[in-house]
Amino acid sequence: MEYNKRPESMERITTPALAEAFIEEQVKEVRAQVGDKKVLLALSGGVDSSVVAALLIKAIGKQLVCVHVNHGLMRKGESEQVIEIFKNGLDANLIYIDATDRFLNKLVGVADPETKRKIIGGEFVRVFEEEARKLEGLSFLAQGTIYPDIIESKGVKAHHNVGGLPDDIHFEGLVEPVKFLYKDEVRVVGKALGLPANMVDRQPFPGPGLGVRCTGAITRDRLHALRESDAILREEFDKAGLTDKIWQFFTVVPDFRSTGVRDGKRVFDWPVIIRAVNTVDAMSATVPELDWAVLKKITDRILSEVQGVCRVLYDLSPKAPATIEWE
Ligand code: XMP
């Protein structure tokens, strides 16, 4: 069997029973692979790394060391949820690193989207690497590699989840228990492991996080407006029963202002842009016709609850020519 090929005999995991069988088999395999040694995992809170964490906790408990790096570009409540579920709920060996200042300081004045992405990705690897050096006796590196990652990287071992570690940090091997699974199967396994639906069914969230939605040079006040408006959007979509119906939705705070009037005085504040799209594969996307009352409720709440914002817009642009994200 080729290392990177899903076995042809492998049944598609579509039911809780099939997920249970998969989990049982992986628990055995992981135990056989790592013995009594320690395993390191970068736990972002995304679907793949969360499912790998829950699976490995079941298999080897505290031999798994999870590191959650908060780069300061997470959505509201996201890091807190990771701590709540894994540390408090599953009693994980979890190291939480709040690297907000470090990331935001590096990003001061950086407006070019690709440079921002590179800084965020590069800094992430450095923080993770520093932590790995501090910890002793780590023999294995776990990754939330899934089958599409392997297919997309054409059979090259995918290190993308941690961005690649330097050669002088040596691991005996990789632990990649979901590497032959498709995304929908990872979600079924996650549910069978008891992870909450809002974590397992989560919409895609880019690695650079809110950094690509706070356009141009990121400032803390705009980032705050972005995080708060995004939380309002999610809350109102939830209440309107839209969360499961729309593929991806979020807000954007661009780096320009417009004139407004508040309490009889002129203000010069930011707009908040609502982005909502439906798609099958993210290669093209359409914009749903949202109920006016829902849009109005979100607009009213953002304008009254989020500081520094005087306008709310709905982005009507399909992909192509617009991309889903603004940067
Ligand atoms: P675009 O903006 O290219 O986005 O239409 C397509 C999908 O990819 C997500 N996306 C990213 N995911 N790192 C990621 O992990 C990134 O840098 C990144 N940029 C975009 C985006 O949210 C959408 O689902």
What does this structure look like?
The chain folds into two domains: 16-200, 3-Layer(aba) Sandwich (Rossmann fold); 213-314, GMP Synthetase, Chain A, domain 3 (2-Layer Sandwich). Helices cover 39% and strands 17% of the residues. The protein is built from ten helices and nine strands. A five-stranded parallel beta sheet has the order 3-2-1-4-5, sandwiched between helices. Strands 6, 7, 8 and 9 form a four-stranded mixed beta sheet that branches. Strand 8 (265-277), helix 10 and strand 9 (309-314) form a beta-alpha-beta unit. The protein binds xanthosine-5'-monophosphate (XMP). Xanthosine-5'-monophosphate binds at residues 117, 204, 206-208, 248, 282, 319, 323-325. Xanthosine-5'-monophosphate (XMP) is lined by residues 117, 204, 206-208, 248, 282, 319, 323-325.
Which SSEs are present, and which pair or pack?
Blueprint: H1 16-34, E1 38-42, H2 47-60, E2 64-70, H3 78-89, E3 93-98, H4 100-107, H5 113-134, E4 138-142, H6 147-152, E5 173-175, H7 183-192, H8 197-200, H9 220-239, E6 248-252, E7 258-262, E8 265-277, H10 292-305, E9 309-314
Parallel strand pairs: 1-2, 1-4, 2-3, 4-5, 8-9
Antiparallel strand pairs: 6-8, 7-8
Helix pairs in contact: 1-2, 1-7, 2-7, 4-5, 9-10
The structure holds xanthosine-5'-monophosphate.
Percent strand equals: 15-25%
Look at the structure and give the mean pLDDT. Answer: 93
Ions, cofactors and other ligands present here are: xanthosine-5'-monophosphate
What is the class of the largest domain in the CATH system? Alpha Beta
Q: How many distinct helices?
A: 10
Largest sheet: 5 strands, parallel
Low-confidence runs (pLDDT<50, min 5 residues)?
155-163
Rg for CA atoms? 21 Å
Largest sheet, order of strands side by side?
3-2-1-4-5
* Morphology: globular
